[in-house]
Amino acid sequence: MGTPLDTRDEQVAAVLDRLYEEYPDSTISLNYSNRLELLIAVILSAQCTDERVNKVCADLFETYETPEEYANAPQEELAEAINSITYYNNKAEYIRSACADIAEKHDGEVPDTMSELTELAGVGRKTANVVLQHGHDVVEGIVVDTHVQRLTRRLGITEAESPTKIERDLLDVVPQSDWQQFTHLMIDHGRAVCTARNPDCDDCVLADICPSAKPDADVDLASGEAW
Ligand code: SF4
User: Fold this and answer.
1) Which of 31, 63, 121, 204 can pair with 97 through a Cys bridge, CB separation 3.0 to 4.6 Å?
2) Where does [4Fe-4S] cluster bind (predicted)?
3) What pTM was computed for the model?
């Protein structure tokens, strides 16, 4: 088991230093060419891999371009176009409804505030944060997805369980200038090394400061259960 640094600020600083070194080009892995495409890709990415979303969006973005086109697409037609994505029926409904609101209430533009974004169907704080950061260059918070949730708990940076509470904890200890990159670094490390089922602690640059590091640690702090 690794030994975390004395304070959470120090722990975060060390994690950031090392992961910046490991993943110098870390960034969002969804493909999009405008804010509407970004919003749609992020809605589709909930509980689905970015790889699959990119594949589906390559055709989807050729078929539909404007908010009106999505809003006016028949539910079955849009669902069919995204049917390899998890929860495609619900997501088709969200997209049609969100795009109707964008067309009618926002002059066809994807809104640029947290409150307006989270009023759109299918858009929670996480989706809104991604759209604000990558679509509008507004960094209001830290995106907490499943990788951020797992890694921050494993690394002893938070003990909170819900994404909302984890974000609150992180905002206190992650320097504001790193809010955006923090998420991408966690996602890259979560995909490459600290995977959900079988993290490769032997080959992890954080092992000496990670209280969950196998084989010495008995418990995975992300789940609270024995490894
Ligand atoms: S791979 Fe292992 S040592 Fe590295 S952060 Fe994950 S649990 Fe900790």
Assistant:
1) 121
2) 194, 201, 204, 210
3) 0.90
